[in-house]
Amino acid sequence: MTTRSEKESRKKALLEKANDPKNISGIYNYCDRWCERCPFTSRCLNYDLDEERDLDELDISNEAFWNKVMESLQTTFDLIQDMAEEAGIDLDEIEPIEEEDDDIVVHVLSSVSRNYADMVDKWMQDNEHLLLDKSEEQDRRSGLKLVQSRIAVDTVPLKDIIEVIRWYQYQIHVKISRGLSSKKHEDKSSLNDFAKDSDGSAKVALIGIDRSISAWGEMAGYFPEEKEILRIIKSLTRLSGMTEKEFPDARSFKRPGFDDDTCA
Questions:
Q1: Given 3-state DSSP classes, what are the helix, strand and coil percentages for the chain, each rounded to the nearest 5?
Q2: Does residue 146 carry a pLDDT above 60?
Q3: Threshold 0.85, pTM exceeds
Q4: Chain centroid, CA 80 distance in Å
């Protein structure tokens, strides 16, 4: 049974952490909840309350991880475009949406994001043996280089690529759905001059899409013969364009800490 003195001690410790100037106020409101991969754990009160570890060292490691994942994003786009053209797949083709009907926009955004999650499940299940064989091969050979691939994939281990894809697989849909829900309430109020919660949620979704596209580009390097990967990337690029159209200010939304240069 917790004594009164123990309760008072915990309350005091909580207040001290809450008042610590190193913590970024509200940083946890627009994050992807992937604390183990976050570069700001040492400045997040939510994480600090639950974890006891060397947070500064963890932040440095996580920042390096995301830099590695995203550093070749534009190159990946270019190479994937070439591969898609060879396979006869148009990554830029986006089906038209009836703009005058908001319900259709909401339905299509939700449908495409959910369909992407289903595509991931199907591809992972259909290619489980390929992933297992490649992972075992990579475990045996340090610094693996794939001869047949035109994308340098030895920078990010396959297990990390899968981890990124799986983390955002459903979260993209959840964040888009939250953004759409928030937007309905915002449209009924006078918030035009203020940052909108819907844009914050949409931005987290767009970041998840960006990271997923980069991860799938790396996956295509491991399995260049798997043309379904290109269709998955097409679905993501389509979803990205649709989301940016529905939330035109999302990319410019400033998330506490993550998008504040003074806190970097």
A1: 65, 0, 35
A2: no
A3: no
A4: 19
